[in-house]
Design goal:
paralog of FGE (formylglycine-generating enzyme), four-stranded mixed β-sheet, 12 strands
Length: about 300
């Protein structure tokens, strides 16, 4: 994976017509129910999504982002049957995990949101490197430590407790939570429906339009209405990386010690196999890459 190049310093000027102003930024909040978006299964079978999912929309310095409530439950984590021959030993053994209700970002953190909170944009895929500026691309070029600083600043602005998801929360949400249809990727068995990866990005040639990350939510969502849980950028999780055990667990947070942190979801730079919901990767927390970003949890 490519290392981050020079950071691009951008100045943020914001004018808001609503919301509260403070020394640390503008902030607004909206809570409600959102109709479940059509899933891949609806598209393929001609059905209609029923019911609703609870969402919370936050606006920080003019940039809005949505958190989706994931109802807690029990699931089998790791190398389940639908993962087939792509499974590696990091995903074994499959084991039972229970997670409590939580919220997770509808999309990855965008360049726009990172810029609104931090005042700079560390991403490689900007006009500074010959690419079209699109702040709806996911932010990348951020370390695990950078992500912790970002959530800390976001929390000072909002008064909330945003954080990185645990690995178990991430996989449960990627699988569709209590609405899971048992797909191998996040919302489909066909990664082309729901993921950007190396074989379907618009251009495979570096330094050309269409290469690299793609705007968030430009593929279909999974059963929970979450976008890009497979592909586009790897996503940092809170946990240290470690081998799975056979025992069932409740709200696991990873081992107490270790040199690396978990990444999940695959990326534009990787093969379709990286997009599987059970796939695991890890990097030292200081690592930077132009296909590694984050998604918020709450």
């Amino acid at each position: 994976m490519k290392r981050r190049r020079n950071s691009l310093l951008l100045l943020l000027a914001v004018l808001m017509l609503s919301g509260s102003a403070g020394s640390q930024g503008f902030y607004a909040y909206h809570k409600g129910d959102t109709k479940v978006p059509p899933t891949v299964s609806d598209k393929l079978e001609g059905g209609t999504a029923m019911g609703s999912i609870k969402t919370e929309t936050f606006t920080v310095n003019g940039v809005s982002f949505t958190m989706v409530t994931v109802k807690g439950g029990k699931f089998t984590m790791g190398a389940t049957d639908e993962q087939d021959g792509d499974v590696n030993e990091k995903e074994r053994p499959a084991h039972q995990v229970t997670v409590s209700t939580f919220s997770i970002g509808q999309t990855e953190v965008t360049q726009a949101l990172w810029l609104a909170v931090m005042g700079t944009n560390p991403s490689y895929f900007t006009s500074a490197h010959g690419y079209t500026d699109d702040l709806q691309r996911p932010v990348e070029g951020v370390s695990w430590y950078d992500c912790r600083i970002f959530t800390s600043r976001l929390n000072r602005i909002t008064g909330k407790q945003f954080r990185l998801p645990t690995e178990a929360e991430w996989e449960y949400a990627a699988r569709g939570g209590s609405l899971s249809q048992g797909y191998s990727c996040a919302g489909s068995n066909d990664p082309n429906e729901i993921a950007w990866y190396c074989d379907n990005i618009p251009s495979n040639t570096s330094e050309t339009a269409g290469y690299g990350t793609q705007p968030v939510a430009s593929k279909l969502p999974n059963e929970l209405g979450l976008y890009d849980m497979s592909g586009n950028v790897w996503e940092w999780c809170f946990d240290r990386f470690g081998p799975y055990g056979k025992k069932s667990q409740k709200n696991p947070v990873g081992p107490k010690s270790g040199d690396s942190r978990v990444n999940r979801g695959g990326s534009w730079l990787e093969s379709a196999g990286s997009c599987r919901v059970s796939g695991r990767y890890d990097c030292v927390p200081a690592y930077l890459s132009n296909d590694l970003g984050l998604r918020l949890a709450l």
